[in-house]
Amino acid sequence: MTRTTLQSAVFALLAATTFAAPAFAGECPANKKAINALTGAPTMPKGVTDTVIGSVDLGAEINVADRQLRTRRLVVQPGGIVPLHSHKDRPALIYTVSGQITEYRSSCAVPILHKAGDIAREADGISHYWINHGEVPTVLLSSDVHHGN
């Protein structure tokens, strides 16, 4: 192989790996997207604290009546559960600050592992629940639009 050919091959390999579409951590694999009935899903919380750390009345801010944008800090202990709930009409983004947690989602045939630094998009009417199968607490920041008081 000539030097020019080798340089061209290296450049092609670098270009292919540099410009390829990114694979996002913490999402359902594309080939595993399917309806999941979530049979036997837990319905009660266990080992989880949920603290509102800030909120904005969207009626006053952008004329969206009876809605708040809020951010919560959730700490899910080992073995802890965030029970089955729906995101119909309540979009959210969940950031995993530390630890890791497993999500069971109505639109994914396999569990989704969220590690520190991952963000989960909760929208499109999905239902899901989360379980901390790890040995350390998991800290999450949840920002959602919900029906306010």
TrEMBL record:
The keyword Cell inner membrane does not apply. Residues 1-25 form the signal peptide. It comes from the Bacteria. Residues 74-142 form the Cupin type-2 domain. The keyword Signal applies. The lineage of its organism: Bacteria, Pseudomonadati, Pseudomonadota, Alphaproteobacteria, Sphingomonadales. InterPro entries: Cupin_2 (IPR013096), RmlC-like_jellyroll (IPR014710), RmlC_Cupin_sf (IPR011051). Keywords: Signal. This is Cupin. SUPFAM superfamilies: RmlC-like cupins. It comes from Sphingomonas psychrolutea.
